[in-house]
Amino acid sequence: MMTPAEEFLRDYHDRNPAAASELADRGRVGGRSVYEAFADHVGQPGSVLDLGCGDGALLAVLAGRGTGKLAGIDLSAKQLDVARGRAGLADADLRPGRAQELPFEDDSYDAVVSHMALMLMSDVEKVIAETARVLRPGGAFVIGVGGGGTDALEVFLKVARPLFAVVAEDRQIPTSGDPRSRTREGLDALLGPAGFASVEWHQLLVDLSGPPDSVWQTCHDTYYQVDALDETQLMGLRTAFKVASRSLVAPDGTLPAGALINVATTRLT
Question: In this protein, which residues make up the domain named Methyltransferase type (predicted)?
Fold first, then answer.
């Protein structure tokens, strides 16, 4: 049975099936896409399962790098519909469902990946146990988790948090995820009992800079809590953000903005 947080995530992404990859496409890591930079840490395994695969953007990058057996699971059927239309994913095994109950056979994948999804999952110990079950011995688990924003994204959170805190109870976004899945120490504590080695920790700095209106839209699309705001609250937030970030705008009109993604890599021992 899905939790309230999972129901929200499913419904949100059914309404906005391309939102996650469109947001990722706005950022660059050393001139390349976020998914390309993340895929560098996955390598070229023969088979990959993506937990929270969304609309298949990461799987498509891995397909282009030569991975032949591709699979994914996601709560949103609409996102999976988009994924099935991507180049390289016609034969991918894409299924709706929860990562706590994977519908895949034991020892069937060389690598499991989860980009900005594990950190949103409940019962994370079950997710990790299922990951260990479907991985082959020595298989890789590569996890991307949010590490916070810089510049304009940091400013956005400062002005938005007080507003998020006073949203009416019937409009509040359900809390999702386990805080342990967002830190190196927490992941080691979760992964070790399931047979994984200590994680290696890498950091990606995603450049999201651009014109102020573009950066506002990026901030708007980054945080699920914005979905709880009514039109008046949203207009007020936009005005407050523009005022608070005005001093950061460069002479050429660019508003600097960035996001950190921490990439944890480990193997099943």
Answer: 49-143
